[in-house]
Amino acid sequence: MAYAYLAADLASGALIPPELPLTNVTWERQLNGAGQFTAQLKLPPPVNAANRRLVEAYKDATDRKRRCIYVLRDETPMGVWWIRERRYSIVDQILEIKATELTSYLDFRLFGFAAPYHLVPRAFSGSPVQVARDIIATIADDIALDLSAVDTAGNGAPDISYEGRLADGKSLGSIISDLAKAEDPLGFDYRIDLAGSGTAFTRRLVMARHIGANVGLIAKLTTPWGVGNIVDGDVLEDDRRANYVAALGQGDGDNRATGEAYTDDWGPRVSTSISVTDESDTAILNARAGAYLRLVEHISLPRISMRSDLIDAQLGTFAPGDVGVISVDAGVDPWWPDGLWDLRRVVAYRVQVPDNGDAEIVTFTFDDPASEF
User: Fold this and answer.
1) 120 class by beta-carbon count within 10 Å (0-12 exposed, 13-18 middle, 19+ buried)
2) Does the predicted TM-score (pTM) go above 0.70?
3) Cα–Cα distance for residue pair 229/220, rounded to 1 Å
């Protein structure tokens, strides 16, 4: 396992030499958002002519808001992060770098044209993915973003329209995020991948109604003392558990449409509610309440950290949105005495890169379906 950290120009994608000797690196990938990147760069002593030129090159290559970092693992691209902040320690002579995935750039571009056209509306229509793709296309050339991997098919989603202007003050990031989180069947998934090799790389927007594949086994525990690749983890059972759900629909007071769902499997009654303010049909509200009840009646969320060098799920073989299996052998863990074979969707993961060349630790964030209500 060998890492390389390359700097690239935000605007053109051109690589900026030299390769960066980063340490204390942590990087994240996230679906429908922006994972974080942090690292340190020790500036070389002493201050002589050669090192002065090298430091100037490092400062240029990591210039905030102008440069990106490409992470390569065994020459395979892991992702692209946009440098947002730097902090230099005078005592340690170490430059700390903070970056976020390139999707975060959308939060720094206002929708619409500059004055005097700030009051002129711009309209887009089509499937939700088509609308989002066309909005991003207005600035794609500014950051060398490839849109060829966008799947604009509606796949059952009705066409929508969006109209806005610069004077609305909305960023592209907030617009895309709102479109993506819309209730089924309108929502979609997106991320930006890095493709290529050597010195030729492409920043590729991946966007579709649903992103992800089944990548098989990603985490396995075979003995109580940790043989397998799971090195840390827990199971969170939070206070959203309920056995009665009220769906509050359109209207106010006595005229408010409502639906409900409940179970008598356990008691006494523990209630919660969801808001569906655009719905007036009782049958649909009952169905929505039932769907939420199935999620929270026995809600249980695992968090898993694994070594990257064991089991089949090597870094580079999975991406945010993929579905993988958490496996625990029978008789190994008292929480699952009969074992576990649990399919979970990976919505994010964080990678800690040891400076000594040892295996990385990968911490998964799995989908929390109840959060979508």
Assistant:
1) exposed
2) yes
3) 6
Confidence of residue 373 (pLDDT cuts 50, 70, 90): low
- Per-residue pLDDT, averaged over 118-143, amounts to 93
Tell me: do 19 and 168 sit in the same domain.
no
- Considering the domain architecture, whether residues 223 and 338 belong to the same structural domain is answered as yes
pLDDT, tens digit, for every residue of 107-116?
999 998 766 6
271 Cβ contact list (under 8 Å, min separation 6): 242, 244, 245, 246
Calculate the dihedral angle through the C-alpha atoms of 184, 185, 191, 193, rounding to the nearest 10 degrees: 140
As a whole number of angstroms, the distance between CA 373 and CA 370 comes to 6
Domain containing residue 276: 244-296
What's the rounded Cα separation, in Å, for the pair 21 and 40?
Answer: 9
Give me the number of domains the chain comprises.
4
Query: 365 pLDDT band (50/70/90 cuts)?
Result: very high
150 and 272 in a common domain: no
Per-residue pLDDT of 307-323, as tens digits, reads 888 766 678 889 999 99
Q: Lowest-confidence range among 152-161, 215-224, 293-302, 332-341? A: 215-224
DSSP β-ladder status, 15-16 and 3-9: antiparallel
Same domain flag for 116 and 188: yes
- CA dist 373 and 369 (Å) reads 8
Q: What is the DSSP string of 177-210?
A: HHHHTSTTTT--EEEEEEEEETTEEEEEEEEESS
CA distances from 333 to 213, 231, 300, 364 (A): 28, 14, 16, 20
Same domain, residue pair 76 and 185: no
First to last CA, the chain: 41
Q: Which residues pair with 296 in a beta bridge?
A: none
